[in-house]
Amino acid sequence: MTTLRKLITIAAISLSTAAMAADNYQPPRTASGKPDLQGFWTNASLTTMQRSNNYTDIGLIIPDDKLPEVTTNHHQNVRQATDDNQVAGELPDGKDLGRGRGYNAFWVDPGTKFGSVKGEFRTSWITYPENGRIPYSESGRQLRSDNRAKFSGNDGPEGRALC
């Protein structure tokens, strides 16, 4: 069964690569003429929207020689390997709920690898500016700061403790 799946995957990749290489390539469309975005997509990745300060010395692209070390030492992988006696690759069975992992830990796949674009592994999805951070304007920074001050704290029921 897995051999058949692998063969189908290889055939699909080969056909899609050949179609993209053609000069007159037209993206697939639905019956109504809209772009066909159906398929499998996942955001299970260690790559974040903004670059973490931990990777300022690395930059956007993680060098191949550093990739295993950076991946192994990433806090999500360390937690998955050491937290609550979890075994890497095994789904929680619910016994971990009492130890603080929470209900949604069963449904969420945080990913174990960095995102790859054209064979290069990235530290952030933002590529420009070079620091990989969202370039907020001064008015945007002020609005963010004002809203954080306004909506943080214990002034409403959402911010208050349960007990």
Strand order of the largest sheet: 1-2
The level of helicity is 25-40%
Net shape: extended
Low-confidence segments, given as residue ranges, are: none
Q: Between the first and last Cα atoms, what is the distance in angstroms? A: 53 Å
Portion of residues in beta strands equals: under 5%
Order of helices and strands: HHHEEH
Radius of gyration: 22 Å
The biggest beta sheet, please?
A: 2 strands, antiparallel
> What's the average pLDDT?
82
Say what oligomer this is: single chain
Q: Counting H and I runs of at least 4 residues, what is the number of helices? A: 4
Structural class: mainly alpha
- Tell how many strands the DSSP assignment holds: 2
What's the helix and strand layout?
Elements: H1 2-21, H2 67-73, H3 75-82, E1 116-117, E2 120-121, H4 138-151
Antiparallel strand pairs: 1-2
Explain how this protein is built:
The chain is an all-alpha fold. Among the domains are: 46-62 and 114-150, no CATH class; 64-113, no CATH class. Helices cover 30% and strands 2% of the residues. The chain is built from four helices and two strands. It has helices spanning 2-21, 67-73, 75-82, 138-151; strands at residues 116-117, 120-121. It has a two-stranded antiparallel ribbon with strand order 1-2. Strand 1 and strand 2 (120-121) form a beta hairpin. The model has no long low-confidence stretch (mean pLDDT 82).
Would you kindly provide a brief summary of this structure?
By secondary structure, the chain is an all-alpha fold. Among the domains are: 46-62 and 114-150, no CATH class; 64-113, no CATH class.
